[in-house]
């Protein structure tokens, strides 16, 4: 597959965090952090020439200096490219997320293998980190789990490692589904499955825990389907949005009979715990 990439330089640098959800909604599906901002990738077939101006039209960018350089990439071994940039992620002494080519750390309690490919969710991004950190403190044991927008499968796989009785991941990107299945096999998971699709493909059953690390607009659009699939007393964890988005998401949740239980933040990115 051919990809188009943007090298984005932004000042002040912390403003780059605001670009992730905007770029994701435009079809960019993979990101690398750089010293000057970030690099974003989109399949060339999905790329439109007016996207640069569309991004720069956002009002909050008026106070920022943004430069975007567009590159075209022919067919490459994207796994090799990704591996060269992938670094292990450690959450205290509780969890190490690493690629198969990284060494183990025997001082860390749990080891999770992710073969990096072009799908979101290796633990580098704040929202994936928030989700992993939350799951380490949550009673996952013997629960049925649904992971929406499962990406590399990292959250679904972690749930099985934490004792979930069964876990299903649903992902709209077909390449990511295969990557997630490969990652589940790497971690010897036997209770985790993945489906290609969106919220319309949620099976007709109830789950005790639902995870959705996507973006604000998709969460607002599909929250009714998550609520319908959640068991009474079950928890829904939402992430992929900013602290400023909490009010509109909680309002929607309350309309669906969900109650806000907790909120955690990392660099203004947010995770909400809701309960039915």
UniProtKB/TrEMBL annotation:
<dbReference type="GO" id="GO:0005737">
    <property type="term" value="C:cytoplasm"/>
</dbReference>
<keyword id="KW-0689">Ribosomal protein</keyword>
<keyword id="KW-0687">Ribonucleoprotein</keyword>
<keyword id="KW-0489">Methyltransferase</keyword>
<keyword id="KW-0963">Cytoplasm</keyword>
<dbReference type="GO" id="GO:0005840">
    <property type="term" value="C:ribosome"/>
</dbReference>
<dbReference type="InterPro" id="IPR029063">
    <property type="entry name" value="SAM-dependent_MTases_sf"/>
</dbReference>
<keyword id="KW-0808">Transferase</keyword>
<protein>
    <recommendedName>
        <fullName>Ribosomal protein L11 methyltransferase</fullName>
        <ecNumber>2.1.1.-</ecNumber>
    </recommendedName>
</protein>
<dbReference type="InterPro" id="IPR050078">
    <property type="entry name" value="Ribosomal_L11_MeTrfase_PrmA"/>
</dbReference>
<comment type="function">
    <text>Methylates ribosomal protein L11.</text>
</comment>
<dbReference type="GO" id="GO:0032259">
    <property type="term" value="P:methylation"/>
</dbReference>
<dbReference type="GO" id="GO:0008276">
    <property type="term" value="F:protein methyltransferase activity"/>
</dbReference>
<dbReference type="InterPro" id="IPR004498">
    <property type="entry name" value="Ribosomal_PrmA_MeTrfase"/>
</dbReference>
<comment type="similarity">
    <text>Belongs to the methyltransferase superfamily. PrmA family.</text>
</comment>
<dbReference type="Pfam" id="PF06325">
    <property type="entry name" value="PrmA"/>
</dbReference>
<keyword id="KW-0949">S-adenosyl-L-methionine</keyword>
